Predict the structure.
Amino acid sequence: MFEGVFNFDKSFAIIFSSVVVYLFLVIAIRLFGKKEIAQLSIADLVFILLISNAVQNAMVANDSSLTGGLIAASSLFLINMIFKFVTFKYKKVSVLIEGDPVMLIHDGIVLEDSLKKQRITMEELEAAVREHGVKGISAVNLAVLEVDGNISILSDSYKHKTSKRRKAHRIIKKEI
């Protein structure tokens, strides 16, 4: 009935390859770190476009048909939906895939070990504090690097909360 239009062996190969590529990219992005996802630069965008082009062939091989593309896209949507469900349902899986929020400042004191572990410079942290409209690090009650790469800031005795997307910052050097 489906001969010539739908090849089950080819379809299974596309589904399998798409799932493997998806899992690889999730792991690679997780290893990349939270900081990197929230501050995509032009080079990062080009990198993502090139990766998508490189893995496209791995997913569909030499099948550039509409059916092959739809099977690959459907597989990616399905595995993404499953991942979202599993990370929502099971906290341990969510922590494994997305990580935990990381405290960066507590009651005006910078947690140096957290900055080093997350590869955030003092200049980047100070810029994030300024972006939130807080006078300085000493006025911050709590700063947290969220799992999505955003930095949340609580100040004024935990009454004023702001959360902004991190982005690449230019360091302005003082001229002496």
Q: What stands out?
A: Residues 59 and 101 are 33 Å apart (CA to CA).
